[in-house]
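Re: [help] complex structure
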Amino acid sequence: MNIKPVALLFTVTLSACGQPSGDAQNENPRHYDPLRLAQGERTFHTHCSTCHGWNGEGQAGWQKPGPNGALLPPPLDNNGRTARLNSKQIMAFIRQGSPDGRGAMPAWENKLSMREIDDLTLWITSLWSDRIYLEWQTKIEQDAR
Ligand code: HEC
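Output below.
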């Protein structure tokens, strides 16, 4: 199970919050429900990691279309660009898959429940560093609400 580093990250972030820095910005915004996170990870390993890699690292050469002109599975972690999408857009992408002919991302709306897609999205955001997550939370996610 891949939850340990995440749990460790929380411990570190939480203890950092305990410091008397007097800086409200330091408040930890990452309150994940461990059960939902574990479910998201399990669904990812069942349906998604064959393409996107076990830890969401994607496939080499994803920046450009492959020989057949289709896009390769991109990383969903810090090395990718997924944090440009708000959570509604990420969920819509998972539900609908690639726009016609662009890539090989299958549509999942008839195979996974909304709850499963929600948990998957939560797990994807948990892959990001605090810096990327905070930027996403303040610039992308908040604006979309
Ligand atoms: C058959 C291979 C394949 C499988 C299985 C697959 N994907 Fe993808 N995925 C892709 C490809 C290829 C793209 C890029 C397609 C595009 O941009 O049109 C992509 C793109 C994405 C994106 C957009 C990322 C970004 O930064 O633009 C997300 C989110 C995503 N996939 C999540 C998932 C999830 C969650 C699952 C499992 C439910 C999954 N994928 C299963 C191939 C796959």
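Residues 6-24 have pLDDT under 50 and may be disordered.
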